[in-house]
């Protein structure tokens, strides 16, 4: 943000906020022209215009900054060539004067028609089966096949994210999917049971099977023209999905048309292995009728177990209840009642052994209440497909990183997420899975590395380092630079330069977040330098370490000149100046440092204040001065001793005077005798 915006009046800011904001050199965003009809869970929509193609209709999503956009896959989404996709045209960080911060922004092709539904609870005209097939199933299947071929998951298939491309053709446009993590904005009805159990930001990337499930629910809603469970709260709906299956829970006793009903049933099968695939849909579209797949009924106990005044017949529903009441669950677990129910009423020895192992290993954690660790592991053993549940939060394995990011972006405590990693709950979740998948291997390795960072608290490590290692697209959230949304080490330096220029500088330009961000993103810098940033380290060593780190980043990233940041460092370098022994030399070095600061090169400043040759020369001169001083001191001491012996001085002086006088008298007498005889 320009520094003059800091002193702008409210009226000035209002005028500035309505000025077009340029994104790269291709688009302008118009803050004064909001488009609420195109708002998304990731941010608000504004009109935009192309600077190259004046005929193109575009709009922008200015991200809210409370969750991470999918900036790691934006370029891949932009390359998707499918008429059903809302084309992503441009992206990047912009100066957003309305909030006096920088925001991540995405520019899309603008639909000219309306949304199919404005809210998931709305009622609309039911869509005939033929129209559903032609206008929704065919284009969405083609889009999902295109995305799948590029290794992408959409994660936002729902009627409220579908538009008519124009006002006449009825062609469908599926809305954007990159302003939030996959599934973040999905209502519970649109998600599978497992993802519905999970906190929105922690649902992970997902798979094409999840998109197909969402497509099935969307077809049901559009066919009926309404949400069939709009009056049911999320908790009750999720319980019904678990106990009865998704299709019976949503459809109930309604009779659906045979053709499209077959598709909806196939797409809403809860077991992803039995759910219809893209190939199944292609076969159906080509006229082939497939045998309906019956939902698997979960194993039911011979007798229920009572917990918190309710009876539970299934492991999955019991697991969900235990996670909600860890204190009461601990009593049921430790009393042996749960083990007895599993082995006798459920006749499930394998699950009983898994629960016993969960109880045995629960004490190995390093953080959080013991009861929470115990209940979390037991719940995973009872329901392996469910997310990791811990202290009221739920996480799928590949969604833990996004949950950590959301906590920091929202200014909330990340302690719960950190404890999930520290207690090795992801590893336990992998161990209880009946179907091991290859993608678990790199994830487990990553979690081990992140746990190592969490266990070490030195600068450049700790929870901050884990955050940036877990989320490669995470901006630096240091209070010093967060408003500038810095995504790279060079961005951090420019943000520090901005902070220094506006008088908003902190005590030091490198805090724990900046140290961790640079350590994660700029791995060329030696890790030992970050250990010198500890508050317990001598201020001189800490300041030199900061200057060294920042100068290396500037030199290797081409961040440009940074005169204000250099001046900030000069203000901290007084201990470096004072280590020169010569006061004139101190003043000379200080003047040289201040002059170098104007040039904006941190490396030049470092050479001046940490010049080994200058320090060696200063040390040699100081040692020589010390020797001369000691010699002078010796001479002075001798004189003091001599002056202190008054009798000796008088006697010695008298002798010298007598000798001189006698010598003079003798000389006069001899001279007189010689003159006498000469006459």
Class derived from helix and strand content? alpha+beta
Query: Radius of gyration in whole Å, from Cα?
Result: 38 Å
Strand line-up across the major sheet: 1-2-3-4-6-5
Give average pLDDT, whole number. Answer: 88
What percent of residues adopt helix (DSSP H or I)?
40-55%
Please tell me what the overall shape is.
elongated
Structural summary, described in words:
- It is a single chain.
- By secondary structure, the chain is an alpha+beta fold.
- 51% of the residues lie in helices and 9% in strands.
- The protein is built from 29 helices and twelve strands.
- The strands form four sheets. Strands 1-2-3-4-6-5 form a six-stranded antiparallel sheet. A two-stranded antiparallel ribbon has the order 7-8.
- β7 and β8 (172-174) form a beta hairpin.
- α12 packs antiparallel against α13.
- The radius of gyration is 38 Å and the shape is elongated.
- The N and C termini lie far apart (113 Å).
- Residues 1-16 have low confidence and may be disordered.
Topology summary:
Elements: H1 10-17, E1 21-23, E2 27-34, E3 43-50, E4 57-63, H2 74-78, E5 88-96, E6 101-109, H3 129-149, E7 162-164, E8 172-174, H4 193-196, H5 208-224, H6 234-244, H7 246-251, H8 258-267, H9 278-285, E9 305-307, E10 310-312, H10 315-324, H11 326-334, H12 337-345, H13 349-361, H14 370-382, E11 388-390, E12 393-395, H15 400-409, H16 415-422, H17 425-431, H18 440-455, H19 462-470, H20 489-501, H21 512-521, H22 527-531, H23 539-557, H24 563-572, H25 574-578, H26 583-599, H27 602-609, H28 612-644, H29 646-678
Antiparallel strand pairs: 1-2, 2-3, 3-4, 4-6, 5-6, 7-8, 9-10, 11-12
Helix pairs in contact: 3-5, 3-9, 5-8, 10-11, 10-14, 11-14, 12-13, 13-14, 18-19, 19-21, 20-24, 23-27, 24-26, 26-27
């Amino acid at each position: 943000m320009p520094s003059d915006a800091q002193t702008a009046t409210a009226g000035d800011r209002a005028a500035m906020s309505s000025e077009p904001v340029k994104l790269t050199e291709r688009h302008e965003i118009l803050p004064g022209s909001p488009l609420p009809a195109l708002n998304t869970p990731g941010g608000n929509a504004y009109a935009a215009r192309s600077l190259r193609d004046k005929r193109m209709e575009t709009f922008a999503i200015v991200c809210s900054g409370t969750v991470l956009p999918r900036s790691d896959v934006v370029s891949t989404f932009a390359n998707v060539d499918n008429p059903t996709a809302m084309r992503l045209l441009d992206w990047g960080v912009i100066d957003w004067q309305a909030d006096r911060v920088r925001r991540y922004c995405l520019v899309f092709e603008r639909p000219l028609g309306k949304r199919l539904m404005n809210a998931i609870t709305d009622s609309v005209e039911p869509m005939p089966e033929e129209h559903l097939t032609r206008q929704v199933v065919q284009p969405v299947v083609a889009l999902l096949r295109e995305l799948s071929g590029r290794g992408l998951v959409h994660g936002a298939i729902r009627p409220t994210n579908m538009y008519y491309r124009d006002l006449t053709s009825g062609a469908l446009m599926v809305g954007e999917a990159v302003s939030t993590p996959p599934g973040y904005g999905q209502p519970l009805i649109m998600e599978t049971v497992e993802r519905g159990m999970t906190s929105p930001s922690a649902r992970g990337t997902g798979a094409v099977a999840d998109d197909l499930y969402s497509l099935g629910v969307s077809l049901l809603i559009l066919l009926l023209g309404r949400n069939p469970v709009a009056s049911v709260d999320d908790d009750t709906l999720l319980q019904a999905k678990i106990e009865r299956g998704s299709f019976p829970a949503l459809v109930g006793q309604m009779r659906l048309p045979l053709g499209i009903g077959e598709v909806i049933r196939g797409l809403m099968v809860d077991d992803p292995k039995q759910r219809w695939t893209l190939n199944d849909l292609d076969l159906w579209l080509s006229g082939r009728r497939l045998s309906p797949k019956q939902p698997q009924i979960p194993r039911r106990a011979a007798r229920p177990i009572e917990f918190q005044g309710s009876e539970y017949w299934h492991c999955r529903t019991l697991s969900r209840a235990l996670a909600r009441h860890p204190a009461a669950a601990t009593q049921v677990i430790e009393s042996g009642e749960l083990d007895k129910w599993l082995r006798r009423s459920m006749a499930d020895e394998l699950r009983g052994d898994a629960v016993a192992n969960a109880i045995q290993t629960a004490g190995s954690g390093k953080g959080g209440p013991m009861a929470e660790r115990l209940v979390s592991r037991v719940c995973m053993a009872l329901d392996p497909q469910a997310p990791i549940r811990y202290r009221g939060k739920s996480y799928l394995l590949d969604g833990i990183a996004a949950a950590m990011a959301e906590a920091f972006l929202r200014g909330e405590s990340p302690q719960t997420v950190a404890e999930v990693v520290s207690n090795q709950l992801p590893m336990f979740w992998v161990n209880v899975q009946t179907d091991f998948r290859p993608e678990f291997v790199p994830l487990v390795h990553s979690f081990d590395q992140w746990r190592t960072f969490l266990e070490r608290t030195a600068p450049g490590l700790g929870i901050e380092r884990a955050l940036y290692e877990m989320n490669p697209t995470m901006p630096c959230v240091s209070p010093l630079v967060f408003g500038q949304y810095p995504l790279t080490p060079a961005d951090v330096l420019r943000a520090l330069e901005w902070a220094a220029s506006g008088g908003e500088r902190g005590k030091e330009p490198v805090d724990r977040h900046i140290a961790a961000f640079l350590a994660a993103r700029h791995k060329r810098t030696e890790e030992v330098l970050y250990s010198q940033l500890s508050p317990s380290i001598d201020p001189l060593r800490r300041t030199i370490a900061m200057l060294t780190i920042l100068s290396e980043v500037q030199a290797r990233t081409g961040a440009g000149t940074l005169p204000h940041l250099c001046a900030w460092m000069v203000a901290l370098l007084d201990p470096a100046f004072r280590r020169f022994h010569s006061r004139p030399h101190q003043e000379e070095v200080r003047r040289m440092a201040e002059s170098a600061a104007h040039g904006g090169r941190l490396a030049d400043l470092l050479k001046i204040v940490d010049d080994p040759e200058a320090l060696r020369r200063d040390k040699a001169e100081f040692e020589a001065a010390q020797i001369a001083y000691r010699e002078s001191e010796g001479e002075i001491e001798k004189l003091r001793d001599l002056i202190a012996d008054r009798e000796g001085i008088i006697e010695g002086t008298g002798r010298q005077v007598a000798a001189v006088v006698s010598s003079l008298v003798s000389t006069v007498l001899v001279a007189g005798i010689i003159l006498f005889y000469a006459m």
